[in-house]
TrEMBL record:
The lineage of its organism: Bacteria, Pseudomonadati, Pseudomonadota, Betaproteobacteria, Burkholderiales. Residues 133-158, 240-278 are annotated as: Disordered. Residues 12-72 form the HTH tetR-type domain. Residues 35-54 bind DNA. Residues 133-151 have a biased composition (Low complexity). Keywords: DNA-binding. PROSITE patterns: HTH_TETR_2. SUPFAM superfamilies: Homeodomain-like, Tetracyclin repressor-like, C-terminal domain. This is Transcriptional regulator, TetR family.
């Protein structure tokens, strides 16, 4: 190993130490507690050393957002294997909310702190996702034909939009199969996907910031939201239809089997009159 390579590795190792320390502070104390001096104390370096790697605290925050967003995208990768597009969208929605709940400070930093942080996360996902030689797109490419090719191609062009592309492609599959209501089918796919994303983000944001939200279990709320957008799952809808048909048949059978209420008294009254006669 040459001197230049050794110095480069040492520089990268120190950069990772800085980010690791910053990440621990954010997770433990929140972003407001993050400062260059606190990070320097955590890694036992002078604050001046940090500025050799990052221009400011905001620069560190943007790097953390890139990593956090790549982590979110990684949770979506196995879901591309789901063949049914509606179930794929449901799984994506649940995974998105679960990430926000399980990593609240990371989620806040990416989506709720500073627009420039969000922009860095969406724009920097390519490097963060593929830094180990693989990427979410590579994994998706091996997922089989159930995963959308368009998602992978678009993610290569703009990895910050990878999640939206997966949603859009699933929606297009539902439209092609005639499984969308007329109102939804007439809507532009990108608009629909962004609206669903906004709904899911609202659930996470309220869960993180509002002490009285939700009053129902979070999983129930997510399910109701997804049902509102996608309709009841096919198996549930079919089961409900079958149950209704069975109930209808039983009701008809009862009406035929039971004597008519209006017919019963007539012969009884006739019998009584006959008995009272001479």
């Amino acid at each position: 190993m040459g001197i230049a390579e050794r110095k480069h590795r040492q520089k990268q190792a120190l950069r990772e130490r800085i980010l690791d320390a910053a990440r621990r502070i954010v997770v433990r104390e929140g972003f407001a507690a993050l400062s260059m001096r606190k990070i320097a104390d955590a890694i036992e370096y002078s604050p001046a050393t940090l500025y050799l790697h990052f221009a400011s605290r905001d620069d560190i925050a943007r790097a953390l957002c890139e990593e956090g967003y790549a982590q979110l995208l990684a949770t979506f990768v196995p879901l591309v294997r789901i063949a049914d597009p509606a179930e794929r969208l449901r799984a994506l929605g649940r995974a998105y909310v679960a990430f926000g709940v399980e990593h609240p400070e990371t989620y806040r930093l990416i989506f709720m702190e500073d627009p420039s942080y969000t922009g860095a996360a969406l724009g920097g996902a390519a490097a963060a996702t593929g830094k180990d030689g693989g990427s979410a797109d590579d994994s998706s490419a091996n997922a089989g034909t159930s995963g959308s090719t368009a998602s992978r191609d678009n993610a290569d062009d703009d990895p910050g939009d990878a999640a939206l592309h997966i949603m859009i492609d699933a929606l297009d599959e539902l439209r092609a199969a005639g499984r969308l209501s007329a109102s939804v089918a007439s809507m532009e796919s990108a608009v629909w996907a962004e609206a669903l994303w906004a709904s899911l983000h609202g659930i996470v944001a309220l869960n993180l910031t509002c002490p009285v939200f939700p009053s129902a279990p979070l999983e129930t709320l997510v399910g109701v939201t997804l049902d509102a957008w996608l309709g009841a799952p096919q198996a549930v809808a079919a089961g409900a239809s079958n149950s209704a048909a069975v109930r209808g048949k039983k009701a008809v059978a009862r009406r035929h089997a039971e004597p008519s209420e209006s017919a019963d008294p007539v012969p009884e009254r006739a019998t009584k009159r006959k008995a009272a006669g001479p």
